[in-house]
Input
Amino acid sequence: MLERFNAAAIEEKWQRIWDENNTFKVSVDNDRRKFYLLEMFPYPSGRIHMGHVRNYSIGDVISRFKRLQGFNVLHPMGWDAFGMPAENAAIQHGTHPAKWTYENIANMRKQIRKLGFSYDWDREFATCDVDYYRWEQLVFLRMFEQGRAYKKTSAVNWCESCQTVLANEQVDDNCCWRCDNDVTQKELDQWFFKITDYAQELLDEIDNLTGWPESVLTMQRNWIGRSVGCEIDFPVVDSTLSIRVFTTRQDTLYGATFMSLAPEHPLALQLTTAEQRDVVTAFIEKVRTQDKINRTSDEGEKEGVFTGACCINPVTGRKMPVYLANFVLMDYGTGAVMAVPTHDQRDFEFATRYQLDKIVVIQPEGETLDPATMTAAWTGTGKMVHSKEFDGLDNETAKIRIADYLTAENIGERCINFRLRDWGVSRQRYWGTPIPIIYCPDCGAVPVPEADLPVVLPVDVAFSGAGGSPLAKCADFLNVPCPQCGRAARRETDTFDTFVESSWYFARFTCPDHAAGPLDTAAADYWLPVDQYIGGIEHAVMHLLYARFFTKILRDLGMLKLDEPFANLLTQGMVCKETFSCPEHGWLYPEEVAGGKCLKCGCPAVSGRTEKMSKSKKNVVDPDNLIAQYGADTARLFSLFAAPPEKDLEWNEQGVEGCFRFLNRVWRVVYDNRHLLGGPELCPETEGEARKLRFDTHRTINKVTNDIDGRFHFNTAIAAIMELVNAVYAFSPKQDYPGALREALETTVRLLNPFVPHFAAELWQELGHERGLDEYGWPVCDPAALVEDDRVIVVQVNGKVRSKITVSVSASEDEIKATAQADENVARYLENMTIRKVIVVPGRLVNIVVS
Output
């Protein structure tokens, strides 16, 4: 046995052994319990970062723990490889997206393998592999047949920089989620998936996702956004047209005094009079560039323009001017809002600005509202007024009665509305899955015959990034005969949103080599759902919602037999590090700062906030450098010990050093006592001081098991192992009880195995075991070892801790009192004092009250 822990040699050795033995390769085994552990697969950006290390270390602990418990564990890895970053990087570096992507995959695979994660690498694939996306194209054709994939002209979020459409979920503060440039509105023909067909089911089944964080569930509920109300038609004056609105406040209908349309509403220009056309057109163009979040925020300025048209309030007969308003969106309801200024704050501000009428129809209890003196809208409850036969009712009752009235008079109808909109999946990009549609001048949009799949993305294209997708200029790809009539036709040149690929990859991992269809039913039925999914909370709406939707699509196509893809979800925190900057040079690397000054110019270097590691802020830590200096196991251990997985981890160099020292400390205690340990057959003693060490050993087994299993308190589990190591060092009669010592050391190694697997495997071998750690399973706590003969009790004098005593568990209260008072550390506080009372809290403490 080497005296010192050589991380590089040990890690290279065990990674080679695991690869040669296919240790983590799994297959369907109906006689074993399965466990499917999956971390969200990475985008192949070129290099892994500490966020990857932390995420995959968390998953690997769970995977290895479950394997040790006897589960048949599926733990795959692959690559989310399509998308705009590859195109942008290819343009920047003068290469092809395919070349850039596959080179990055090779580099990142090498980095990840150096960390020793327990992946079944035989299941690896990239979403840009033809053998993957061909089946995605088949699913699209089946959806097209059922009307769940369709094309329509739509006002879409357009990123001029990326030259592509973005889903609502991909727009952050009116900026592109990829490049951070401004997003505008643009009318385009787009392909959509009818996720709205599943809105109610997606909402209902949130209640069944008991293993998901409540914060994620709340975000999904809000995004789906179910509202119960009425749709009401407002006839347009001097026209056969009508404006349909959706409202949840039909109780305020009698107070509606004007109509607000979204600038994107199809009637916006159609209703506009000739006199108003110029100002309306200018307003529409202005709003196209405005951020939707700011448009609808309470603080945003309420702006609008009169169209010149009016409509009729169907219950009052009042003529209502029709305005376009920037705070009304087509993304919710019908894109038209009946404006009730006295009972909606946005309407109140708008009416005040444009001097529009206000009518109170709900009076609060004990007050009389006057529109002329109101400074804000009343949005609370009250009694109905100025509402004809509904006067005097409380407004909640009036909601029901007015809904009945609207239905009976054929003015409107009850309905349920969702904030969720159909998923726009077209992207005007090259590096993505081709949409399998052919456009014929006579036949229209024709699906590619299934026998002709896959539609392969050509790689022999001139790629410059200018002027949109090169697919439109690639004659061999573009020009094809119509499958129906044989005439000259052209292919669709849009590609799928990359979120389509990531919406079903977890299912394909169950059968990556299946060549007869998207999924092998038997394998999918065995492995799915994913038992534990791990990833960032930033995916709460987009990826996780789309994956839930796609699972239901695959179910309804007969390809899956489950309703939800992920039984349990863990959202890990970020890895953060201190930042530095100076006024002259901006962000600085830590090595560019010394003595509180910038080494470039000498000015004071500002120590910024602790922020997420980012190349732009120069506060990243390269995992390769960390592994080279300390080893993969130390990197893993620190990322698991420094913070609970759901919290942000603050990078701390001293913490890394501490983890490295701890591993060396464990190695040293085994090395120093190797002559005492005998062979693996040595049995632990149960008498004398060995009993206390066995108690510590089995208490630690119990603690670590409970902390890992379902709770994921890895930091406290590691802390408990550290305490056991301390107990081993403090165990003085080592030579007298080698069996208890060996049990404690073996248990330490077995408990460390999921956290630092190379280190543990090597020590296990050094302890004389011919069979590997995995064959021994997870250690089991012996309840008999936790039965205490003695216990430690705290002794206080007037409430202050003065000593600790050891007493028999069977000691009487009088015996405990006597032992406490006789303790030399306590006795000196009792000299020349009168004992007034002695309080005994069984099993915990004694408090002696004196004066």
